[in-house]
Design brief:
With 75 residues, the protein is of the alpha+beta class. It has one domain: Alpha-Beta Plaits. The chain has three helices and four strands; from the N terminus they run αβαββαβ. The longest helix is centred in the first third of the chain and has 12 residues. It is globular. The two termini are 24 Å apart.
Length: 75
């Protein structure tokens, strides 16, 4: 957990945030990126675009790499 906090702190220093670009998400399936999140920061209502809990997200980028549509981005 300390390692996760260290990574999150480094990313926060870079002022990055995880964003969902709903227009890129087909919203017709369970989001595959949700399973990749090590801290459970992504949630989804039905097949809607996922939501990010920014209080939990450690900005590791795993979900960004998993999303086939590029709907999740770190900026």
């Amino acid at each position: 957990m300390k390692e996760n906090n260290r990574i999150a702190n480094e990313n926060n220093k870079n002022n990055k945030t995880l964003k969902v670009i709903a227009a890129r998400c087909p919203q017709d399936h369970v989001c595959p990126a949700m399973r990749s999140c090590p801290v459970g920061a992504l949630s989804q209502d039905g097949f809607a675009a996922p939501r990010v809990d920014k209080d939990i997200c450690i900005l590791c980028g795993k979900c960004v790499r998993v999303c086939p549509m590029g709907a999740l981005v770190l900026e």
